[in-house]
Amino acid sequence: MTVPPIHTIATGREGSLFDTDIAAVEERLRDGIKGSRILVVGGAGSIGASTVLQLAKRKPAALHVVDHNENGLAELVRQLRSRPFDWSADDFRTLPLDYGSAAMRHFIGSERPYDLVLNFAALKHVRSEKDPYSTLQMFETNLIKQAKLMTWIGEAGFKGRLFTVSTDKAANPSSMMGATKRVMEHVLFNSSVSHALKGPKVSARFANVAFSNGSLLQGFENRFARREPIAAPMDTRRYFVSLTESGQICAIASVIVPGQSIVVPKLDPEEHLVALDRIAERFIRYHGLEPAIYEDEQSACASVESELKQGRWPLLLTPRDTAGEKPYEEFMTESETSFDLGMPNLEAVSYVAADRQAIDRVLTATSELLNADFGAQPLLTKERLKEIIASVEPSFLETHRDAKANLDQRL
What we know:
Elements: H1 8-11, H2 19-33, E1 37-41, H3 46-56, E2 62-66, H4 70-81, E3 91-95, H5 102-110, E4 116-119, H6 132-155, E5 161-165, H7 176-190, H8 192-196, E6 201-204, E7 208-209, H9 216-225, E8 230-233, E9 237-238, E10 240-241, H10 243-256, E11 261-265, H11 269-272, E12 274-275, H12 276-286, E13 290-294, H13 297-302, H14 304-309, E14 312-318, E15 338-340, E16 346-350, H15 356-371, H16 382-390, H17 396-399
Parallel strand pairs: 1-2, 1-4, 2-3, 4-5, 5-6, 6-11, 7-10, 8-14, 13-14
Antiparallel strand pairs: 9-12, 11-16, 15-16
Helix pairs in contact: 2-10, 3-10, 6-7, 6-15
């Protein structure tokens, strides 16, 4: 009997939902990629690497992949080299660079202009707003370095297509992570640096990627391997796509979708929103065991071996009471409108512009915090960072879900 791919416990499908979308635009994809010069930033992460595989098999002339995670780059090279007949690039390189560093600026300046630049680099965990220092790092990575990248490629003569991945959590954000990605969209589409940069700019918001690096579901696998209890929040539903599906969405968005738009999947909340505790139960059953429900962390941790002898695995259910957690996800706000792309499972949201001066002030205020001397005012606090976001996204003062507990205080 063939065992279904593990991502099916979250997505409910073995094949890709977007195969028909890819088929509908395959000729345009190949025309846009074949012979082109491509730079992928953050290309060693789960979504970035999946997108690299989509690009590489359509024969670009140059494919340069940048990521500060050199181990991830090594694994990406191994993955590509294991598929010698499925990809090609005359000039393929990986570079272990921080994309906001001086080394990155020198590298961009040394290269001929690219035809396509994709940025996947981000701090993407809700848990990273646990203190103002981690949150400031999120601001730097998701906003300041994005602006630097745009400046540098513009100075190098870039006039091609620029894609930066967003997240479903950017729609009515309840977390600092979602809010910084929402502001990232503003930086991409309507900041002064964006105005100075020629060529189409595109983004994408989509669901959680099942078993991606650092995800809750990958945590299930790690905990299972270490013989630890599985943990999941109650009353929390999420959309999921597979790794392959995430790469397909980003390839389509980056190559053929009109500028000033954000690609989103056509997912039905009744059909595709899945409760995380149900996925945890399915994961345990996928491995031939039955879930044993716990609500106390210490009891769950002490019970693994005894439960295993009875064919069960402890599943700790936790309340949804930590900062930034939403009960469900959404892809667009009430103020946004979608338009058809001629594909069965993907559509696009038209970017709704924020005030350019307000966007620029966010970048300036963040830079001032990053460069402030020790003890300088204003003090670095989560409240100050929240005020900076609210200067361009006032509704964040209402939608932000704050709490004393954070995800580091959960199993």
